[in-house]
Design goal:
Number of helices: 13
CATH superfamily of one domain: NAD(P)-binding Rossmann-like Domain
Oligomer: single chain
CATH architecture of one domain: 3-Layer(aba) Sandwich
Radius of gyration: 19 Å
Helix content: 25-40%
């Protein structure tokens, strides 16, 4: 069996590649800027905006971990076109998101799900909660340097999940029977407010980290001023609307049902990456174990 992982350098893609590699599954890791191939993992170039790169990436694979083309032009139609170009792929596991059916139509994730369901493949859709690792994105600089995370989430709770758990679930669905035609809602073990989450991170990093609730308009303005493209602003506002509405407060037992172990806690993540959140931590020792 051979599996293609799209978005292989992204948060979940890295986790899926590692989970497949640990199972001894031949893996093709696809991205716009591929890394160096290693035993069991072939890195290849695939660009959603350049269909001429698709054939080599898809050649000889039985299953695909599919992360949608968020930033590509005509992104709503590209998933269907990719599947049409992959007649030999029999299994697709797709990374979606909780609350996908409540997102504005400008966000194409519901269309991607529909195209996958209608493709005639053995499909599984993963709808995860907010990643722990999202804290390492746009929030990371102000949080690490100034100890402050600012977002329009109010005091809503979020069932944060570790991308390693998403990777394990995806690898199982890609390589084992019994997951076809299923949509899985994936969360961590508890729902926390941003303030509670930062308290755990701060305790592990031995510093104060705090959350400041922003107004929606101010948050949107900061994103635009920081150079975020219009589509990214739309996505961030829509996702935070769902957070404030309580859509992400859910906690499910799905990760444990599929993997056989409880989902990783924020405390586990905080301990492993404590050095990342310490003042000067990256310069002193880099990202990783405290």
């Amino acid at each position: 069996m051979a599996v293609l992982v799209t978005g292989a350098t992204g948060k979940t893609g890295v986790a899926v590649v590692e989970a497949l590699r640990s199972r001894g599954i031949a893996t093709r890791a696809a991205s716009r800027r591929p890394g160096v191939s290693v035993e069991g993992v072939e890195h290849v170039r695939m660009d959603w905006s350049d269909p001429t790169t698709w054939a080599d990436a898809l050649d000889g694979v039985d299953a695909v971990y599919l992360v949608g083309p968020y930033a590509a032009a005509d992104n709503a139609g590209l998933v269907g076109r990719l599947l049409a170009a992959a007649p030999d792929v029999r299994r697709v596991v797709h990374l979606s998101i909780m609350g996908v059916d409540k997102l504005p139509t400008a966000i194409p994730m519901a269309q991607w799900e529909a195209d996958i369901r209608e493709s005639g493949r053995d499909w599984t859709i993963l709808r995860p909660n907010w990643f722990f690792q999202n804290l390492e994105d746009g929030f990371a600089g102000p949080l690490r340097d100034h100890g402050v995370l600012e977002a329009p989430a109010g005091d809503a709770r979020i069932g944060f999940i570790d991308t390693s758990d998403i990777g394990e679930v995806a690898a199982i669905a890609l390589t084992e029977e019994g997951h076809g035609g299923r949509t899985y809602t994936l969360t961590g073990p508890q729902a926390l407010t941003y303030s509670e989450a930062l308290a755990e991170l701060g305790q592990a990093a031995d510093r104060e980290l705090r959350y400041v609730a922003l107004a929606v308009d101010e948050f949107a303005g900061r994103l635009s001023e920081g150079g975020a493209p219009d589509w990214a602003v739309v996505w961030q506002l829509a996702l935070h609307d769902l957070i404030r509405a309580g859509e992400y407060a859910a906690v499910t037992g799905t990760v444990e049902e599929i993997t056989g172990h409880p989902p990783r806690s924020l405390g586990t993540y905080a301990t492993a990456y404590a050095n990342y959140w310490r003042l000067g931590g990256l310069a002193e020792g880099g990202l990783g174990q405290a």
